[in-house]
Design brief:
Elements lengths: L14 E5 L4 H12 L3 E6 L2 H13 L5 E5 L5 H14 L5 E4 L17 H21 L6 E5 L22 H25 L5 E5 L8 H9 L2 H10 L6 H4 L1 H8 L8 E6 L4 E6 L9 H17 L5
Parallel strand pairs: 1-2, 1-4, 2-3, 4-5, 5-6, 6-7
Antiparallel strand pairs: 7-8
Helix pairs in contact: 3-4, 4-5, 4-10, 5-10
């Protein structure tokens, strides 16, 4: 049968922050963590949508759920969110970098970076850096960064990260998802080198039915894409099933730093979670270190890259 939420340990007394917690994988992850007794901070871009999701959870009998405003496309918003966590809680046990954007037309973040790279990678990079001090010393503290199967097709366009020379929305998405897993592995390497108590893992949901697909179609107007999703619909699993790999990475006592979890069947598209290999492009420590240095520079400068 494989690993399910029934295998999650008791999480009472533990505090988790989930980005993009108001829908899809984030909402299902929040629901499962609350079910196991954790206090969950729902970090959402839209306060209205976040409040609606929180109200739904409270109506179902959940407690210990809080709401934070977080726009990953604006590094100043990331800073403000982290200050709020520090002020309200002063500690954190689990950070699940779940929020994502998939294949829109070329847009720029508040600081002038290509939107998918900014939201999926840079925003989470900055968030993690700021929250790590709150996690240090906590037992089984973990950062889980959510990537996707697109990582296997990704390449980092070192000379054109923001797609100024040429923009392909799917290549940009794959680049950001490769960056996710590169970040997760490099973070764990650095944590181990510094003898930190925190560990970093990665996970991907396979083909999970979330709002990313309809939003992608709506933003692009691509009828071919809409048709492809309809034809592939039987292969998609639920958001609850898609959330299992990140939940396993975040909570399973057997999960270790530097590991990557995804669905176990049909080439990683669906099924119970298990440990999965990462993209070949993410296995070079030299390339991961290069991305780390570049990302650190970008979040520090805050200058527009237009």
């Amino acid at each position: 049968m494989g690993w399910t939420i029934d295998d999650m340990p008791n999480l009472r007394g533990r505090i988790a922050l989930v980005t993009g917690a108001n829908s899809g994988l984030g909402l299902e992850t929040t629901r499962a963590l609350l079910r196991s007794g954790a206090t969950v901070l729902m970090a959402c871009r839209s306060r209205r949508k976040g409040e609606a999701a929180r109200a739904e959870l409270l109506e179902l009998g959940s407690s210990g759920v809080d709401l934070l405003e977080l726009d990953l496309a604006d590094l100043d918003s990331v800073d403000a969110c982290c200050r709020e966590v520090q002020s309200r809680y002063e500690r954190l046990d689990l950070l699940i970098n779940n929020a994502g954007l998939m294949a829109p037309p070329r847009l720029l973040s508040q600081q002038g970076h290509e939107m998918q790279f900014a939201v999926n990678h840079l925003g989470h990079f900055a968030l993690t850096q700021a929250l790590l001090p709150l996690m240090e010393g906590r037992e089984q503290a973990r950062v889980v960064t959510v990537t996707s199967g697109a990582q296997y097709f990704g390449a980092i366009a070192w000379d054109d990260l923001s797609g100024e020379k040429r923009y392909d929305r799917w290549k940009a998405y794959s680049q950001s998802k490769l960056a996710n897993v590169m970040f997760a592995l490099e973070l764990n390497h650095r944590l181990e080198q510094s003898e930190s108590t925190v560990r970093s893992l990665a996970a991907h949901p396979g083909l999970a039915r979330t709002n990313l697909q309809p939003l992608s179609v709506a933003s692009s107007g691509a009828w071919q894409e809409a048709l492809a999703y309809r034809l592939m619909d039987p292969m998609f699993q639920s958001a609850a099933q898609g959330a299992l790999p990140q939940l396993m990475a975040a909570t399973s006592p057997s999960a270790q730093g530097g590991e990557h979890y995804g669905p176990s069947k049909f080439g990683g598209m669906r099924g119970a979670p298990k440990r999965q290999p990462v993209a070949r492009a993410a296995r070079s420590q030299e390339q991961r270190a290069r991305l780390w240095a570049l990302s650190a520079e970008l979040i520090q400068t805050r200058s527009a890259a237009v």
